[in-house]
TrEMBL record:
This is DgsA anti-repressor MtfA. It comes from the Bacteria.
Amino acid sequence: MMPLYRMNSLASLIEELRILFSKVRLTEFEIQVLEQKFPYYARLSEKHKKEFREKLQVILTTKSFIGRSEIRVVTPEMKILIGATIVMVTFGWHDLRLRHFDKILIYPDTYYSTISKNYHRGEVNPRHGIIAMSWNCFLNGMENEKDGVNLGIHEVAHALKLENQIYYNDECEFFNPEVYDAFQEIASVEIRKIKSGELTVFRINAGIDDDEFFAVALETFFEKPHEFFEYNPVLYGTLVRLMRQDPRVWVKN
Ligand SMILES: [Zn+2]
């Protein structure tokens, strides 16, 4: 058997060649979808829009989008909006694309997981490199862009945190360790507050554990940056440094 690191370098070589020679190109229609349905993109400068489209093309080239249950065909809109969510969350890094998570499963609605024996809106499976989402819940999350509830951001946030600790590929430890420690320290105070029933800017699920806090904090960061900043400027500022972007720039107050 080939050692894992060599298999991996071969796989990444093939992937790089694919990006170079058979990169997916966005159609006019797909760019329209971005303009009309993805406010983050619509508010960027022309220069950043170009960068965003470039990153999205790489995402679409390197990930498989797979329909489950009644979703027989994955539509361009599904790929564009889910792909754009990955680009948005990772936009602070030049070429971070969550390599380990190369399969995106799309269910029509909440679905039953045989592993957890529970109904899910979405989940991340690091063992199989999967991000799974219910399309219905994804759209609900996008519909109100200011309520701090967004399934797409939530699941991509879980994948981001895991990718930072997955060591076989060259995408790991992209979080600045000091900033991450600072974030964790303040986060634990917030988790305690939520657990004791105190009202915070975060929804209650953030109190479950560190992973859920991170995912909900990113939903709040992208959808309610001004409220988040007012609520806890130190935590917000730490997240700006960790994520290398500040959503207050383009989300209107
Ligand atoms: Zn979660």
